[in-house]
Amino acid sequence: MSDTEIKGPGYRVWFDAEAATVHLEGSLRLGTAEYEPIAALLNSVIERRLAAISLRMTDLVFLNSSGINTLYKFAIAIRKLGDIAVHVDASSTISWQSKSLPNLRKFLPGITITLH
Predict the structure, then answer these.
(1) Which of 31, 59, 112, 113 is such that its CA lies 20 to 30 A from the CA of 88?
(2) Within a 13 Å sphere around the CA of 15, how many CA atoms are in the beta-carbon half?
(3) Which residue has the higher pLDDT, 1 or 79?
(4) What per-residue confidence (pLDDT) applies to 76?
């Protein structure tokens, strides 16, 4: 497994460096410790110090509270750097996304979120 891709039963998370996009798909129902490899992938993306990063979640059907907390920590880490633009592509038909993703703005006010 590469350091830019994490796969498990029913989910896949990977980073497309050319598009500067982290893709999350499937159903993430992991325990807190099980999110550590995903957090490490997100942190490695931050360390690249790209001007902009996208998170594509249109195929992420479920994300539990531990996963949402992982995203919040990612947003806080980016806010501390202060110079990385973040865009989230999400799905308006997946209820958790329209309810939980707007809360990312509390941690990263400049984030843009598009619900398709």
Answers:
(1) 31
(2) 20
(3) 79
(4) 97
In angstroms, the first-to-last Cα distance of the chain is 31
Full 3-state SS string of 60-83:
EEEECHHHHHHHHHHHHHHHHHCC
Say how far apart CA 60 and CA 10 lie, in whole Å.
10
pLDDT at 4 over 60: yes
**In which residue are the tokens 């992938």 written?**
41
Determine the Cα–Cα distance for residues 91 and 93; give it in Å rounded to an integer.
5
Work out the pLDDT band at 3, boundaries 50, 70, 90: low
Please name the residue ranges forming H helices in the chain: 36-47, 65-81, 95-100, 104-107
Indicate the class that CATH gives domain 5-115.
alpha beta
